[in-house]
Structures are given as structure tokens and as C-alpha cells.
Amino acid sequence: MKQLRIPGPTPCPPEVLQAMSRQMINHRGEEFRNILADVTAKTKQVFQTKNELLILTSAGTGGLEAAVVNHLSPGDKVLGVSIGLFGDRFANIAKIYGADVTLLKFEMGKAADPDMVKKALDADPKIRAVLVTHNETSTGITNDLAALAKVIKSYDKLLMVDAVSSMSSVNVPVDAWKLDVAVSASQKGWMVPPGLAFISMSEAAVKAQAVSKMPKFYFDLAKARKSAELRETPWTPAISVFFGMQVALDMLLKEGLQNVYARHIALAKTTREGMKSLGLDLLADEKYASNTVTAVRANHGIDYKKLSKIMREEFDITIAGGQGELEGKIFRIGHMGWAFEPEIKECIAALKLALPKAGYVK
Length: 362
Ligand SMILES: Cc1ncc(COP(=O)(O)O)c(C=O)c1O
What we know:
Elements: E1 3-5, H1 14-20, H2 30-47, E2 52-57, H3 60-71, E3 77-82, H4 85-96, E4 100-105, H5 114-123, E5 129-133, E6 135-136, E7 141-142, H6 145-154, E8 158-162, E9 181-185, E10 196-201, H7 203-211, H8 221-229, H9 239-255, H10 257-277, E11 293-297, H11 304-315, E12 317-321, E13 330-334, H12 341-357
Parallel strand pairs: 1-12, 3-4, 3-5, 5-8, 8-9
Antiparallel strand pairs: 2-10, 6-7, 9-10, 11-13, 12-13
Helix pairs in contact: 1-9, 2-9, 5-6, 9-10, 10-12, 11-12
The site of pyridoxal-5'-phosphate has 12 residues, from helix 3.
């Protein structure tokens, strides 16, 4: 395939793929212990944190589940701030495990309003924790997490953040913003395949873990911590993805995090300008438009299924559709991780030819 323009999994650099083709090693041997220590230390650099960080073999959703079940107890009052499908999912995990969740939902395509969050916290002083999605991949919106965190931490609530599709592509200074728990996953901006979730925990989070009563086994962070002290993981890790992470982290740090963020800002701008130049409408409130994924309205007669087929079959470019209630109403272009300007321009040029064949009239 020429281009995988979906918001994760994202394409991997050849160096990463090559590193991953290595033979297996003993996951309880010295070589893997060194790799785990190296990957953990460098991932913490990307999280911009001195907090503890654990690496789980799982999808991003497993990281979110670990965040919920290790820090909360059944009956705990939780505020779920949702601007889309992934915000709903985070809140739903808490609900399924017995938390008393208030869902503060914002319109699709809009960011969360810190004043409304403040009102919700004022309305119920018993709220213990707040769940926030940093970058809502389903709508292409990035919340103003600095502003939200400022409000939430001024109430001293436990702040748990889904940074799955922002961390490593967008500036997320975990310590500076006082994020108690932050979660990301390898298949997004990290330039490696799916398989690993990363979770950082502040001192307050570690204290909350000690009193958490939600059931857990595979995602029990106490077990992960005990193993991490021996530079091991409790269960068999995705060794190949660790091989890839070592190379990808070195690439990210060599490029320099500020340069990586600047590259994503530029890619997003090119994508948005390109869509507008084709006469298309963006879903996002542009002030909060994501630097990792752009959501475009499938209006003006566009048949998304046809568009996606033409893009794939005639141009060898895979784009993403809408999810949940946005299915058929939008399409999305991923531009995170190992992504560069010429590919985005090629994608825009292909869309220009494909759109009229998919019913687009303007
Ligand atoms: C913001 C966000 N949260 C959570 C997830 C879930 O990750 P996974 O599919 O790895 O479980 C995704 C994946 O697209 C995401 O974009």
C-alpha cells in the first residue's frame, strides 16, 4: 500500500520494521531487562514526566481500563468529560466497573469548555476523579488540556487523561500540567505497530491505587510495578514491539520533540488548507482542530463508501470513515507519526480526482 492515512495504526519507518523482524529473546533475561529499562526511560522523556511509567502489552483501551480499575472503587463519583466516541468509552469503562459516572458531553466537533467542567465540579463536590480525552480521534478535536487541567487540579481531583492519539505528536507535558494518570498507545504517533500501552502515574495516583477496590488481574498495576522493579513485566510482553520502540524512540528524540510537534502542526495545516481548497467543510471548530487527524464532512453529495473505495483502488491510499453516530457523515485523514508533507499533498491531489467520482458536487 502506498499510503495508510488512517489515525492509527500508522505507518512504521523501515528501520522500525527491520528491528522488529529479529528473533525472539528471553523476556526474563538480561537483554530484555535492558530493553525494558531503555524504552521506559525514553518513553518518560516523551511524556515529559518524572512520574512512574509502566508499559503494558495491550491496546490503548487496555491502558484506559488499567487507569480506571487501579485508581477507583465501585461507587466512586466520577466526571466523564466527553467530546466524542473515545470520551464516551473512557466513561463507560468506569461505569461498567461500578463507578457512579456523570457524563458531561459536548457537541461533536467542539472542544470541552473548562467553565462547564468547573460548573459540574461545583455541582457535585463528591466527585473524586475526572476523565478527559486529550485528542478526540473520532472528531479531530484537541481539547485545551492545559486549561481543563488547571480547573480540575484547582479542585484537587484525580485527573486521568486519554492521550492515546496525542502523546508523542503533540506537546503533552504531563508534570507541568499535573496530569495524574496519562495513557497512550504504540500504534499512534509512536511509529510502531499496535501492542503496547503506556501509563504514567503521579504520587496522588499511586496513593489512590492503594485504596482502589475495583476488580483487576491482567491490568493490576501493583503486579506490573513489582515486576518493573526487577525490570520485567508480569505477563509475556510484546517483545517485537519493544524492539521497534527502541528504534522509534531514538528517531523521535533525535528529531527533537519540539521539531516533531512543529512537523505535526505543519502537516495538520496543510491538510486543513487542502480540504478547504477543495471546497470541503471541516467538522472541527478550527480553533481546536487536531494536529494528528483531520475530520471532513462527507456532505455536498459525497458517498463516503464510494470515496474510500476509489481512494484505495485507484490511488492506493487508505482513508478512515466516521465512527459511531458520525459513520457516513465524515471521513478522516490521519497525519500522525511517520508522516510528511509530500504524502499529504499527494493525498489531497488524489482526493481532488476521487471526489467528483464519489458524488461530490459544489
Ligand atoms: C483517543 C483514543 N483513545 C483510545 C483509543 C483506543 O485505542 P485502541 O484501539 O488501541 O484500544 C483510540 C484509538 O483509536 C483513540 O484514538
